[in-house]
Amino acid sequence: MAVSASYPDAVQVLIDEGLKVEASFEAPGGLKGFVGRRNGHPVSLYLMPDGEHVIIGKMVDGFGQDLSANHLRNWLPKPDLTGAWETLADAAWVSEGPSDARRIVYVFSDPNCGYCVAFREKAQPFLERGIELRHIMVGIIQPSSLAKAASVLGAENPVQKLEFHDSQFPRDWLESEENVPKDLREKVQSNNQLMETLSVAATPSVFYKDPDGEIRKIVGLPDDSALSEAVFRYPE
C-alpha cells in the first residue's frame, strides 16, 4: 500500500536522516513493515507493536527464509527510468568505442572499483561491433575515489586514465576534496547524485536498452551471458 504522509516518530527520525519510505505493509508477528531507499540502497524496517521502536534489517522465519528480500521484491516500487537516457547523456562521462556507434551503453565507474576494471576488460571485444561504452565517473568507494575520478574526467587522454593507476592523478588532491579543481569536483559529485537518483548504490552499474527500446539496468558486474546477449547485444 502507498505510505501515508505522517509516520510514527521512530520512522520519522530515519526519514529526517535521509530514508525515503516508498511502501508500507502488514508484516509477520504483528509488525508494521516499511520499505524504502537510503542513498540508493533498498532498506526494510519493522515497527514494533508499541509503535515506538523500529528494527532495521533482515527478517527471517523458522526455516531460515529471508522474508525481507521478499518484502523488498514485492513492495518496493521499481525506479521510474522514464527520461533516464537523456539524464545519462548529460552526465560527465568518458567514451570508448566509435563516436558514431549504433548502440550506446552507460556504466557508473569508480576508479577504486576492481569490478569496474573487470567490466571494462570484458567490454573491449564488443566495442569493435559498433558499440560505444560511456563511463560515468563517480567517487564513492574510498576517500581517494573522487580525486581519481576527477583526474580521469580532466585528462587530455581520459581513456588512458581509465587504467586507474595511482600514479596518474595529482597526489596533493588527496589531502582534501577541496584541492580538486572545482569544476571537476562538481562533475563527480553530480555523477554521485545521479547514481542515487537512479537508485543504484554499487559500481559498476550498467544501463542499456533492450530490443524494444526500454531502458534496463544491471547493478554489479554482469555475467558473460548478460554481457553478450543483453548489454552488448549486436546493433540491429
Q: Could you please describe the fold and organization of this structure?
A:
Residues 101-222 form the Thioredoxin-like fold domain. Belongs to the thioredoxin family. DsbC subfamily. It comes from Marinobacter pelagius. The chain is an alpha+beta fold and 236 residues long. It has two domains: 9-75, Roll (Nuclear Transport Factor 2, Chain: A), CATH 3.10.450; 84-231, Glutaredoxin, CATH 3.40.30. The chain has eight helices and nine strands. The strands form two sheets. The chain has a five-stranded mixed sheet. A hairpin with a 6-residue loop joins strand 3 (41-47) and strand 4 (54-56). Helix 5 crosses helix 7 (182-197). The longest helix is centred in the C-terminal third of the chain and has 16 residues, at 182-197.
Shape: globular
CATH top-level class of the largest domain: Alpha Beta
Question: Termini, distance in Å?
Answer: 41 Å
Distinct helical segment count: 8
Rg calculated over all Cα atoms: 20 Å
Could you name the ranges where pLDDT drops below 50 across 5 or more consecutive residues? none
Would you tell me the structural class of the helices and strands?
Answer: alpha+beta
The overall pLDDT, averaged over residues, is 87
Biggest sheet features: 5 strands, mixed
Number of domains: 2
Helix proportion range? 25-40%
Main location: periplasm
Function: Required for disulfide bond formation in some periplasmic proteins. Acts by transferring its disulfide bond to other proteins and is reduced in the process.
Keywords: Periplasm, Redox-active center, Signal
Family: Belongs to the thioredoxin family. DsbC subfamily.
